[in-house]
Specification:
The protein is built from three helices and 14 strands. The chain is of the alpha+beta class. The strands form three sheets. Strands 4, 6, 7, 8, 11, 12 and 14 form a seven-stranded antiparallel sheet that branches. Bound molecules: calcium ion (CA) (2 copies).
Amino acid sequence: MNYISLSAVAVSLLAGSALADTYNDAIGDLASPSFDGLAHLDITSVEVTNDANYVYFSINTAGDMDAVNWGKYIVGIDTGSNAGDNSTDPGSWNRNVDWGRGITDFIGSWADDGGSGAGAELRSFDGSGWGLTDATYLGGGDVLADDSEHSSGTQILAVSLAALGLSNGDTIEFDVFSSGGGADPGVDHLSRGDAATPDWGTTSIAGMFNSYTINIVPLPSAAFAGMLGLAGVMGVRVLKRRA
Ligand SMILES: [Ca+2]
Ligand SMILES: [Ca+2]
């Protein structure tokens, strides 16, 4: 392997994270007239990626989250760690949603403070009941929320692989929905290109979940890093000889 190609490998390895998978949703698939004008709840796509520590969800909408002071963005995840739950248990925010299956983990996030912040809770089902694993206001580092792209309609979330019990090669199945407060339904589900509910008072029905496989790109080992250093020295020597 010559100097140039080894350096190219080094750059790709040092990047350390996989390319995002993009899951598209229809635009304008919220029931009219119940949800007319609520572009910040109209999911356009969700990008998912991971690094060695977190899986990231970028929830893109057709609206401006800085222009409104409310909106909830939920990710329902089935890791397969147990049979999961499909109830309206308060542990999963009591939302009026029929997932059509069990979920094991629930990221409930908000972007409803007028654009000056974002927050989230991570709740998990242990096979018998729901519990709060972590939240941005608790600061345990297992769930993070980022408002830096609110003006372009994007809520960015991260949840730790450790908290989800995930490692390289594991596959999760998930859905994302937008909602309001209390026991509101999923106004727009990523899993459906049509209306998931006709109005605020009717249970929303999820479609088929998407899947994402954790892909941890290895960083160079100490030995390989040593080789890179040696290759760098050799490369400099070759360049000097040619000069
Ligand atoms: Ca949509
Ligand atoms: Ca949809």
